[in-house]
UniProtKB/TrEMBL annotation:
Its main location: membrane. The gene is atpF. This is ATP synthase CF0 subunit I. It is a single-pass membrane protein. It holds the Pfam family ATP-synt_B. One of its GO terms (cellular component) is proton-transporting ATP synthase complex. The chain crosses the membrane at residues 32-49. The lineage of its organism: Eukaryota, Viridiplantae, Streptophyta, Embryophyta, Tracheophyta. Residues 64-98 form a coiled coil. F(1)F(0) ATP synthase produces ATP from ADP in the presence of a proton or sodium gradient. F-type ATPases consist of two structural domains, F(1) containing the extramembraneous catalytic core and F(0) containing the membrane proton channel, linked together by a central stalk and a peripheral stalk. During catalysis, ATP synthesis in the catalytic domain of F(1) is coupled via a rotary mechanism of the central stalk subunits to proton translocation.
Length: 184
């Protein structure tokens, strides 16, 4: 410890040139040691440092080139996506327009079908009314005929007495008998 303190105290004291030993004077030996270390590092480390820097430079350049290629690829993909989007939008507009036309056509078809159904129902209604009118007329005719027949029978019954009635029956029997003889 005393040697270290002595070396700080006696800065101007240098050991003799003829002796070999360690110089414990830190302030005197450090600049020399450092310059030797730096010289050796620069001489031997220059190639290694240049190689490291060149490798780093090449990696940075390749990264930049890869980034540029990726950028170009992304730009191409973006352009393709935009073109596809435009195409899909055009198709969507076309489908939308076709859909509107289809809806209008279906609406017209539905209206026409409804009109046809209404017309058929109207015809069926008219036919049903005509049938019911004919049936009612037939019923009225039948009733009138029945009433006329009953009235005629009533008049005949009141006008015919039993003798006239027997004569009419005999005349009819005679006509039937004559017809039988003709056919035989």
């Amino acid at each position: 410890m005393k040697n270290v303190t002595d070396s700080f105290v006696s800065l101007g004291h240098w050991p003799s040139a003829g002796s070999f030993g360690f110089n414990t004077d830190i302030l005197a030996t450090n600049p020399i040691n450092l310059s030797v270390v730096f010289g050796v590092l620069i001489f031997f480390g220059k190639g290694v440092l240049n190689d490291l820097l060149d490798n780093r430079k090449q990696r940075i350049l390749s990264t930049i080139q890869n980034s540029e290629e990726l950028r170009r690829g992304v730009i191409e993909q973006l352009e393709r996506a935009r073109a596809r989007l435009r195409k899909v939008e055009m198709e969507a507009d076309e489908y939308r327009m076709n859909g509107y036309f289809e809806i209008e056509r279906e609406k017209e078809n539905l209206i026409n079908a409804t009109c046809d159904s209404l017309e058929r129902l109207e015809n069926y209604k008219n036919e049903t009314l005509h049938f019911e009118q004919q049936r009612a007329i037939s019923q009225v005719r039948q009733r009138v005929f029945q009433q006329a027949l009953q009235g005629a029978l009533g008049i005949l019954n009141s006008c015919l007495n039993s003798e006239l009635h027997f004569r009419t029956i005999r005349a009819n029997i005679g006509i039937l008998g004559a017809m039988k003889e003709i056919t035989d």
